[in-house]
Design brief:
This protein is of the alpha+beta class. The protein is built from four helices and ten strands, in the order αααβββββββββαβ.
């Protein structure tokens, strides 16, 4: 089984080397590398200023590089939930308690969090034109990343049957993260471990207005965990989470 787990600063070496090249080739452009912050508002201001500057560089306009740069800022976000805005809302229709917290909207990225009860499943869903990172702050969760087969119905065709391949499974524990882009791992589902999980999302929208669809698997393996490389059939169900469970 392929597992994509990004740990600590080693995964950020390509990004840091890219930043050095940005400084060398784009005169006058100073991109701030994050430190640890204790205040959410302080972190948010610094992160927005830095990412907006990075977007003015050639590498900053490439989704793969921008997402990895954003991961640096995700690692610097205050982990103490007391430092966050307290606005948790339960999402109706989930198979177990699933709470959502919109921490900050706007551009160039959105910050939100999920609090998942043990065994909670956020069914497979897509982010057309979007990308981001998912960081585990507490507990543990798995992310199953799927790839659509060629020439499948558009996600807006609710009820259409599609085929997907399970590309990878990422097991996240505290301070570990994974990412997705408009073309990689854009269809995925999240499954909380036996202790539950709190996950943070930093999301970017390059195209579209954030529309999405859940995917309900016709095969029970989609709900219970298929093997990497297997092909599964499912149907686009729209934006109602309750319709997405097998």
């Amino acid at each position: 089984m392929r597992r994509r787990v990004v740990i600590g600063s080693l995964a950020m070496l390509p990004v840091l080397s890219t930043l050095k090249r940005v400084h060398a080739h784009e005169a006058g452009m100073q991109v701030e590398v994050p430190v640890q912050y204790s205040s959410f508002d302080e972190w948010m201001q610094a992160a927005r200023e830095s990412t907006l500057q990075f977007l003015q560089t050639a590498k900053g306009r490439e989704p793969e590089y921008f997402i990895r740069f954003l991961a640096l800022w995700g690692a610097a976000l205050p982990h103490d939930l007391q430092a966050w805005p307290d606005a948790w809302t339960a999402l109706p229709g989930a198979n177990a308690l699933l709470e959502f917290n919109m921490l900050a909207g706007g551009r160039p990225f959105v910050v939100s969090a999920l609090r998942m009860a043990p065994g909670c499943l956020l069914p497979a869903h897509c982010h057309p034109g979007g990308g981001g990172i998912t960081l585990c702050l507490d507990g543990a969760l798995s992310l199953e990343h799927f790839q659509l087969a060629q020439e499948q119905p558009h996600f807006s065709n609710t009820g259409s049957l599609v085929e997907v391949r399970l590309d990878s499974v990422t097991w996240l524990t505290r301070d570990r993260h994974t990412w997705f882009t408009p073309t990689a791992s854009n269809l995925h589902q999240l499954r909380a471990g036996p202790q539950g999980a709190i996950a943070l999302d930093l999301a970017v929208q390059w195209e579209g207005a954030g529309e999405f669809s859940f995917l309900r698997f016709e095969d029970e393996r989609g709900a219970e965990g298929a093997r990497v490389g297997q092909t599964l059939a499912g149907k686009w169900t729209g934006m109602n989470i309750a319709d997405a469970y097998v």
